[in-house]
Structure formats: structure tokens, C-alpha cells
Design goal:
Blueprint: E1 3-4, H1 7-27, E2 33-39, H2 43-59, E3 62-68, H3 74-86, E4 92-95, H4 105-111, H5 123-131, H6 140-151, E5 160-164, H7 171-180, E6 184-188, H8 195-200, E7 204-207, E8 225-228, E9 232-234, E10 239-241, H9 246-249, E11 255-256, H10 267-281
Parallel strand pairs: 1-11, 2-3, 2-4, 5-6, 5-7, 7-8, 8-11
Antiparallel strand pairs: 9-10
Length: 284
């Protein structure tokens, strides 16, 4: 039976570390503050907002919400982003996406100050990830993968890691972050020739393809560590599941993240970490 790499202990440990850093900032007169920009009332946005707000409250981060109607204009959205940029008391900004199709999402993302971009929606933050520099912040979910591996004691130096997925949200940035930790990374996707064979070669397999059952029993080998980033709704089973066929894969590998309860459980803690880091950077 594989070791279950649960996210809750990782999030708890990270939250405990952040509380001390927040106290230190407050002693210097700085209250780390997150701006949440939300357009409309999407259920998934509201769910994540509740989780993020609760996590921030736990560690002492202030939250300021900017809520716009789903039929708001581009000018109204850009005015909110400008207000967030100008407010020195706001250190990080989380803007929910996708935005309504009536809005220019690319323009909205580009308008945000990368220094306050705590979930990598700007080109400046992407540059920071790819150049391994402290410009903006990496995507919270991508960093959650790294936090999980660190917490459970996996040494990435020299490790063979295969990433399945090539999006700018997970696949590409997590590949860069793994390489920055001296892992040897192979990037694959759903059109890779003989994907199972490529996956079996890895010591660590990160799956972020966005499709149920992308990785099954034929794609894993004994002793592997599998990080399943996918979150999908399985209509047949009536439950959330990942990109990995868990019941097939778990008996064969050494360790695996559950879905739900794995990577997703760490993301709000990473978001809080980024807000704290952004506040710390303002002190020079």
C-alpha cells in the first residue's frame, strides 16, 4: 500500500511557520494584506475565496475584497486593479479567473503590478519563475507540489521527474521550479508518444493534464512518488477525482497524493505564504 501524501499536515506546518512571520511584520508596523478581486458569483470562486479568507484569518493576514457584478465594464475592472496597485497597504492580489467573456482578461492581468501578483497571472511573475528570480510569485498550485515533496522529505537534487501537462498554470512553471531544485525534468502531455513508457521512467511523476484517467496502472512503476494535481468531477462516480486512476495506481507506487485532500489542500497556505513574502519584500 502506498504512502498517502496528504495535504493537511503540509498546510498546517506552513500555517504555523507563517504565524510567526506575520507577528514579526506587525511588530514593525506592517499588516500583511491580501486583496481579492472577484467578478460575479461563480461557485468555485466563492468556495476558494472562503478557504483563502479562513487561511488568512488564521495567520493574521488582512483581507480586502473587491467584488464586481458579472456585467461590469472593463473600465470598472481596470479601476479596481489600479486602486489595488496604488494602495501601499495592500501587498498581494488574487484575481479570480476566468473572467466573463465580455472582459479582456489579458489586459486585466497585464495591468496588475507583478510585485502584488501572488498567483502568477502576470508576465512579470512568469518571468520570475522561468528565470528563477524574485519577481512576482509562482502559481500557488505549482508551489504546493514543491511544498508537498519537501514536507515528506523527498530530495529533488538529481531526481528524475516527469511532468504530464504543459499549461502555464501548472505544467510549465512546476517544471521550471523542479529544475531550479536540481531535478532532471521530462515534460510530457496527452499527445506524447507512448506516454505510459515515459511516465514509468520517473522517480517522481507530476500529473497535471486536466483529464480523468490520464495516468493508469500501465503508466507507473514500483516505488514512484505520484503527485496528482488534477481536479475533475467524475459524473459516473458522483465525486471529485484527479488525473490519476487512483484505485489502479495506488497499489503499485510508493507514495501518492489523494484527490481531494492532496495538492489542493496546500494551495491556500501557499497563497498566504506569498502575501507574507510580498509584505516582507516591502521592508527591503
Amino acid at each position: 500500500m502506498a504512502e498517502l501524501l496528504k495535504g493537511l499536515p503540509v498546510a498546517k506546518a506552513l500555517t504555523e511557520q507563517l504565524a510567526g512571520r506575520v507577528d514579526a511584520l506587525k511588530q514593525k508596523g506592517v499588516t500583511p494584506t491580501l486583496a481579492i478581486v472577484r467578478v460575479g458569483e461563480r461557485d468555485d470562486d466563492l468556495s476558494y475565496e472562503r478557504g483563502a479568507t479562513k487561511r488568512c484569518d488564521t495567520v493574521g493576514i488582512a483581507v480586502k475584497k473587491f467584488v464586481l457584478d458579472a456585467d461590469c465594464t472593463q473600465d470598472e475592472l481596470m479601476a479596481v486593479i489600479a486602486e489595488v496597485n496604488a494602495d501601499q497597504a495592500i501587498h498581494g492580489c488574487l484575481m479570480f479567473r476566468p473572467l466573463p467573456k465580455t472582459l479582456d482578461e489579458a489586459a486585466a492581468c497585464a495591468a496588475l503590478d507583478p510585485a502584488k501578483d501572488v498567483d502568477c497571472i502576470t508576465e512579470g511573475s512568469l518571468f520570475g519563475v522561468f528565470a528563477n528570480r524574485s519577481v512576482g510569485f509562482p502559481p500557488c498550485t505549482a508551489e504546493a507540489c514543491i511544498q508537498l515533496l519537501d514536507h515528506y522529505g523527498f530530495d529533488l537534487t538529481g531526481a528524475n521527474v516527469t511532468v504530464v501537462g504543459r499549461s502555464l498554470v501548472i505544467g510549465k512553471p512546476v517544471s521550471m521550479m523542479l529544475q531550479a531544485r536540481n531535478a532532471t525534468v521530462t515534460m510530457c502531455h496527452t499527445r506524447t508518444r507512448d506516454l505510459p513508457a515515459e511516465c514509468r521512467k520517473a522517480e517522481v511523476l507530476v500529473v497535471a493534464a486536466g483529464h480523468i484517467g490520464t495516468v493508469g496502472a500501465d503508466a507507473v512503476s514500483a516505488g514512484q512518488t505520484v503527485i496528482d494535481v488534477g481536479i475533475n468531477w467524475d459524473e459516473a462516480a458522483g465525486k471529485l477525482c484527479g488525473d490519476v486512476a487512483f484505485d489502479e495506481v495506488e497499489p503499485k507506487v510508493g507514495a501518492i497524493t489523494p484527490v481531494p485532500g492532496g495538492v489542493g489542500s496546500v494551495t491556500t497556505a501557499v497563497l498566504a505564504k506569498h502575501v507574507v513574502e510580498a509584505a516582507e519584500r516591502t521592508l527591503g
